[in-house]
Amino acid sequence: MDTRNRTSMNKKKIVAAAGLVAVYNYMLKRKNISKWVKNWIANRNVFGHMSLLRELSDNEPNDLKKYLRMTASDFNNLLDLLRPHISKQDTVMRQAIPPEERLIATLRFLATGRSYEDLKFSTGIAAQTLGYIIPETCKVIFDVLKKEYLKTPQTKKEWKEVAEGFKDRWQMINCGGCIDGKHIHITQPAKSGALYYNYKNFYSVVLMAVVNHNYEFIYADVGKQGRISDGGVIQATSFHNRLQNGSLNLPTNSECDEGLNFVFIADEAFALEKHILKPYPQKKLDYQKRIYNYRLARARNVVENAFGLIANRFRIMGG
């Protein structure tokens, strides 16, 4: 490369650098700020909650469990699973936020339901950055854990194990799970009108779930508009589609107690179907129908209790 070409390339680099400086100064003026990163955010190791968490980890494990909503060992196991997926590369501009801090910020958001603007003061991470970190980490948690902790039974043997649990614990035969929906508070989406406004008088999306006898979620669907009834939401799920076309691989009548249908139980909001049971209407109940409603309600409490447990652990699920 001759001297003329080198001089030309140097000039281009100088022009490019000057352009970046000009853009940087323009953005500072437009945002009416005097610095790109606030000092207390740049020094989050000093002003953030990580120092407190290290103290709790060393001396107050019970308080650490309350803060993270899980024990230190559970947190470390979860972090080991997620680390390869949420680790970021450092750059010449700044160091990446460590996986541990990303996970802790996400757990605090789920545990408290606080806004990003509020959460930034304890985490030392800017609200805009939290807006990227938390959704990304939540998606990774789901992708990594779903196969083991949100597994829908696939074989007749697995469905029968669930049914045996309901029979032994709740005296409900041939039951594969309890179905119900829970409304999760949201801020009204832009230009959505009343699509997400529910009968409880707030904006929400619906978490539709199937829960087994041991308060464990075996299917979940979330995101349907709050104005839709539970009966309408379940019909729009992949679970209901598989229930209708017979691809859930449920036990046949000959394989069930008393030769009856293998069923899922639900409340009055759902339609009565071949594989979905609901209570009798409250009018004109005879003794047998009252006993049936009592048994159904007793077994169906597992889904209500499961929602209560998860909402108490993670306040973002409140509704």
TrEMBL record:
Keyword Hydrolase set for record: yes
Main location: nucleus
Co-factor requirement: a divalent metal cation
Domain DDE Tnp4: 179-317
GO cellular component term, pick one: nucleus
Domain of life from the UniProt record: Eukaryota
Any one GO molecular function term: metal ion binding
Subcellular location(s) of the protein: Nucleus
Key words, A-Z: Hydrolase, Metal-binding, Nuclease, Nucleus
UniProt record similarity statement: Belongs to the HARBI1 family.
Name this polypeptide is given: Uncharacterized protein LOC112683766
